[in-house]
Design brief:
The complex is a heterodimer of chains A (473) and B (344).
Chain A (H helix, E strand, L loop, with lengths): L1 H23 L11 H4 L5 E3 L5 E3 L4 H6 L31 E6 L4 E4 L1 H9 L15 H7 L5 H4 L8 H17 L7 H17 L4 H12 L2 H4 L4 E2 L6 E2 L3 H4 L1 H5 L3 H7 L8 H5 L23 H5 L14 H4 L16 H7 L3 H26 L12 H7 L4 H13 L12 H6 L18 H14 L7 H5 L5
Antiparallel strand pairs in A: 1-2, 3-4, 5-6
Chain B lengths: L1 H8 L2 H17 L5 H4 L24 H10 L1 H17 L2 H6 L1 H12 L13 H19 L8 H12 L3 H8 L1 H15 L6 H5 L2 H13 L7 E4 L9 H5 L5 E4 L2 E4 L9 H5 L5 E4 L9 E3 L2 E3 L10 H4 L11 H23 L1
Antiparallel strand pairs in B: 1-4, 2-3, 5-6
Helix pairs in contact in B: 2-7, 5-13, 7-9, 7-11, 8-17, 9-10, 9-11, 10-11
The chains are: A mainly alpha (473), B mainly alpha (344).
């Protein structure tokens, strides 16, 4: 009996829960136009004209739980009015306004300032509109200028590894952000968007470099681009300095620091687009460019880096080539550029150095087979000088060399090797009883030394004192 | 077997030193490089750079210097450690550990002594400190990167290239790399004893030499010291000194303390124990006087300088062109720094 009453009671509670859940947590209805009727179907995919596999399926659960879960599709995909629609109509214009309103001024949020900045930049060639759709292969075929999504992948969701951090920060945002940005709209809408940008999509210097280097470290990809001269508007082929800018950048300290995780290094945009929204990258030749020689002192001294570069005496320092072709492998250069290369100071230096090295190498090889490795072996260049000025054969060596010519065929004095130096040097010195310096600066032995040296210098190998020490080669 | 005989003839201490250099080369360079990798670096650049933070730029502030130091903070610590050991024990890093100078030396010692260039008799102190002054003050202002003639890049890259790594090969094939390689051959392998780069161009070695000189003022600092009463004047120490620090003046070796690396080879080859790596004697006064003869308990391990050994302590009156040039460069450098730091 009481089992059934309990069961009824249980059912009643369950029903109440169900009713409550319908009332309280009514699912959002972000799909007033019914797009997901088709787009939530698995397998909504096709192969387009360029042969790319396109997937139009949207995972309903993922979408609803994402930040945009409550935003109707047509808020962004505005050109779609009918079913079925054309693929092109699905494209999103990044410069259009957004569904989010900036609460303080009540204006719809838009990427227009970025677009305007980007439009002026060296990259802005009008491809920015294909944000959501379009074919990447087609884009690559028709232009080398990157569109927005070339760099910004615009993942709709927060990456799993950053979700926890996002939740935590979002929960505390009323403490940190909310002190100034008061109001429900700030906290729910704008705050979430800003946090998502800060946490979900925050780029460090290495991340942003990776985006730049994706193209600029690939000379094969870049070589078809025609560069336009900002003044005359002439188009010309890129040179190797430009083509290999990524390669030469990675040789420099700016990059080397970043690679090992020291944030004091400089990323590409730290110099090329330090101001504004970091999209206005201009050619060096352009006077508005931050890397134009006139603006370099300002750029180099920005963000606490080289504070002294504003001083005019450091002009040459700011002109240090950050993309030096001399740091590139010569195999990358064309023959014409190699010719120009021979004018550089480095090439002239190597022209000076190389012959000496070649001569020395040949000499060493010959010596290895024919050389006699006994006695005093002097270096072929400067060896005599060393004997005179360092080893202390000062007064007699030069005279000896002259008299040595006369007595060139003088019989070799092969006296016993141990007795001569001890005779030569007064042994009293070693156990001297008289401390004053230079007891007798050899007036008598000096002449003896002279006589010996005159015979020695013609035959330097005969120096008897050498054989007793280990003259290790 | 000449090679084996030659190897056997190497003094024990020098064998130990070569072994240390080889060991530190493995630790610091090339495919292993496990000491730099402890701090996430695979060569001696970036945070490990010891060659850049003391560069002077006109009008530089303390903040800028601090920035230079924080960027390469591990290198700065290593540099300070090197100077500290040098102060007490002599240039141990340069002589025993430095893989960059050490490899050049080992390479040079494997070649014969005949086909070499003798740099040791050049006025090396003058050249070294003139270059150091230019390196610290002139080259930054002229926009010549300190990295271009860096020995601490060249040797690691060479080892990388030999082990087939892409980065090393690219560097060696570049113009800058070729010039650096040329310098390595010219001032390393084909220089007599292979330490010419260390003696002339290495800024770390130059700073180290100054500290070595400073420390030699103290009695308790270990330095290469000479007992001139024992010396026979055979000049074998001068001929074997790899740094060219020993000069025979009046047939007594005089050790130039800014150049000496305390490599100990002069001690090993001296048959008379007239030269030693040691502290100064404790007693400067004679302990005993017997029949008018002063008797010292210890050898008078002296740090001789060149005027000490010349007659009447008088240097012959002549113009020292090297010193003149040096003085001009230094005074202009100090004036330059003073002008841009204090007056601007």
């Amino acid at each position: 009996m009481h089992y059934t009453s309990f069961f009824r009671y249980f059912l009643a509670v369950l029903f109440c829960y169900y009713a409550l859940s319908i009332v309280v947590a009514e699912p959002r209805k972000p799909d007033p136009d019914g797009c997901l009727t088709c787009h939530s179907l698995p397998g909504l995919q096709w192969i387009d004209e360029q042969g790319m596999w396109r997937v139009a399926t949207i995972n309903q659960d993922h979408y609803y739980s994402s930040l945009h879960g409550s935003v109707p599709c047509r808020d962004c995909h505005r050109k779609i009015t009918d079913y079925p629609h054309k693929v092109e109509n699905g494209y999103v214009d990044c410069s259009e306004s957004c569904h989010v309103e900036e609460p303080s001024e009540g204006e719809a949020f838009t990427h227009k300032p970025m677009m305007e900045e980007y439009d002026e930049s060296a990259h802005g060639q009008g491809w920015y509109k294909d944000f959501a759709g379009g074919n990447r292969l087609k884009e690559l075929d028709e232009s080398r200028s990157p569109s927005c999504r070339f760099c910004h992948d615009n993942a709709a969701y927060i990456a799993a590894d950053k979700a926890e951090l996002f939740k935590e920060s979002f929960a505390h945002s009323d403490m940190e952000c909310g002190k100034c940005h008061v109001g429900e709209v700030w906290m729910t809408q704008m705050g979430g968007h800003i946090l998502r940008r800060f946490i979900g999509n925050r780029m460090n210097k290495n991340d942003s470099n990776a985006i730049c280097l994706d193209c600029h470290n690939d000379p094969e990809f870049l070589k078809d681009i025609e560069l336009e001269d900002p003044d005359s508007g002439e188009k010309h082929q890129p040179d190797n300095r430009w083509l290999n800018a990524g390669e030469s950048y990675q040789r420099m300290l700016h990059s080397r620091l970043l690679v090992v995780g020291v944030e004091d290094g400089a990323s590409c945009i730290d110099c090329h687009a330090p101001n504004g929204l970091h999209h206005k990258i201009l050619r060096d030749e352009d006077e508005a460019s931050t890397t134009h020689p006139d603006n370099l002192p300002e750029t180099c001294s920005a963000s606490g880096c080289h504070g002294y570069s504003k001083i005019p005496e450091n002009h040459d320092f700011t002109m240090t080539d950050m993309h030096d072709v001399d740091l590139l492998s010569m195999s990358l250069l064309t023959s014409k550029e190699l010719q120009e290369h021979l004018d550089s100071i480095w090439s002239k230096l190597s022209i000076l150095i190389l012959p000496i090295i070649i001569i020395m190498t040949i000499g060493s090889v010959i010596w290895a087979f024919t050389g006699k490795n006994r006695g005093l072996i002097m270096a072929i260049l400067g060896g005599e000088h060393f004997q005179v000025y360092m080893a202390g054969k000062k007064p007699s060596a030069k005279k000896g060399a002259k008299s040595g010519k006369e007595t060139k065929r003088a019989p070799r004095q092969r006296t016993s090797t141990t007795s001569r130096p001890t005779n030569n040097k007064p042994p009293a010195d070693a156990t001297s009883e008289n401390p004053p310096k230079n007891p007798e600066p050899d007036p008598s032995t000096g002449s003896k030394q002279h006589a010996e040296n005159s015979s020695e210098s013609s035959e330097p190998q005969e120096n008897p004192t050498d054989t007793q020490g280990s003259d290790n080669a | 077997m000449r090679v084996i005989d030659n190897l056997k003839a190497i003094p024990a201490m020098q064998k130990y030193r070569y072994f240390l250099i080889a060991l530190s080369s493995i630790a610091f360079l090339g495919p292993l490089a496990f000491l730099p990798q402890l701090v996430g670096n695979d060569d001696l650049c970036g945070v490990l750079c010891m060659r850049r933070f003391y560069l002077y730029f006109p009008g530089m502030s303390w903040d800028d210097l601090f920035m230079h130091i924080t960027v390469a903070w591990i290198g700065v610590i290593a540099f300070c450690l090197i100077l500290l050991t040098t102060f007490f024990f002599g240039r141990i890093w340069c002589g025993y550990l430095c893989p960059v100078g050490g490899l050049a030396e080992l390479g040079s010692r494997m070649l014969n002594d005949r086909w070499k260039i003798e740099f040791r008799s050049l006025p090396q102190v003058q050249i070294r400190y003139s270059y150091l002054a230019a390196y610290i003050v002139l080259m930054p202002a002229l926009g010549i990167s300190a990295c271009t003639l860096c020995n601490f890049i060249t040797i690691p890259r060479l080892i990388e290239a030999l082990s087939g790594e892409y980065r090393g090969i690219v560097y060696i094939l570049s113009t800058v790399g070729l010039v650096n390689l040329g310098l390595l051959f010219l001032l390393g392998f084909f220089a007599s004893k292979g330490r010419a780069y260390c003696q002339f161009l290495c800024p770390i070695g130059a700073a180290d030499g100054l500290v070595n000189k400073l420390g030699s003022k103290f009695r308790w600092a270990r330095r290469i010291r000479v007992e001139k009463e024992r010396c026979t004047g055979c000049n074998i120490c001068a001929r074997n000194c790899m740094c060219g620090a020993i000069k025979m003046v009046n047939r007594v070796p005089v050790v130039e303390q800014t150049s000496c690396m305390s490599c100990h080879e002069c001690v090993d080859v001296c048959a008379w124990n007239a030269i030693e790596w040691t502290t100064g004697p404790r007693d400067k006064q004679p302990r005993k006087i017997k029949r008018g003869v002063e008797i010292f308990p210890e050898p008078s391990w002296q740090l001789l300088s060149e005027p000490d050994m010349l007659e009447n302590n008088v240097v012959p009156a002549r113009i020292h062109w090297g010193r003149l040039v040096n003085g001009l460069i230094f005074s202009s450098v100090i004036g330059y720094i003073a002008y841009y730091s204090l007056l601007m």
